[in-house]
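quick q for whoever's on today - can somebody do inverse folding on this one?? i tried earlier but teh output was garbage lol. tokens:
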């Protein structure tokens, strides 16, 4: 099992590897466009892991794991597009493909483990996105109603 710091380093290293992978593509207009997308999605893997480490709730943590899994899959997609466009040989992309798949698999396994653990404790995970605004169940007395009433 990896520690939090080891996983942080791994996701950061994934972003650095993606940057190095696309560096030779900067002189090709198509390579530059696809490379930017790959760098964004690979960097989002690390950024979302960082956010997951500071999550305020289990549901937020699970949502971040889902985002990491999605961004790792997206990174693999952009690598496939780069290889399919004959911009980089598949052999050069193989280690990065493998790392994207591994990170996605690790996040999926962690997410499944957490949701299974929640279900066994009688709690069901919320499906509300972590950034969705929810209405409090009781009104907050410090918040003034809008528009103000004209009494």
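ok took a stab at it. sequence:
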């Amino acid at each position: 099992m990896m520690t939090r710091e080891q996983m942080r380093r791994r996701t950061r290293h994934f972003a650095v590897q993606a940057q190095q992978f696309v560096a030779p593509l900067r002189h090709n207009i198509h390579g530059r466009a696809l490379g930017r997308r790959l760098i964004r999605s690979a960097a989002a893997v690390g950024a979302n892991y960082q956010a997951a480490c500071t999550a305020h709730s289990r549901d937020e943590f699970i949502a971040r794991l889902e985002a990491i899994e999605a961004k790792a899959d997206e990174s693999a997609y952009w690598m496939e597009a780069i290889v399919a466009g004959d911009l980089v040989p598949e052999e050069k992309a193989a280690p990065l493909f493998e790392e994207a798949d591994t990170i996605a698999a690790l996040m999926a396994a962690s997410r499944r483990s957490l949701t299974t653990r929640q279900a066994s404790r009688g709690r069901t995970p919320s499906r509300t996105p972590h950034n969705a605004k929810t209405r409090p169940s009781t009104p907050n007395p410090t918040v003034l109603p809008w528009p103000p009433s004209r009494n």
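fwiw Residues 131-149 have pLDDT under 50 and may be disordered. also The two ends are 64 Å apart (CA to CA). so keep that in mind when u check it
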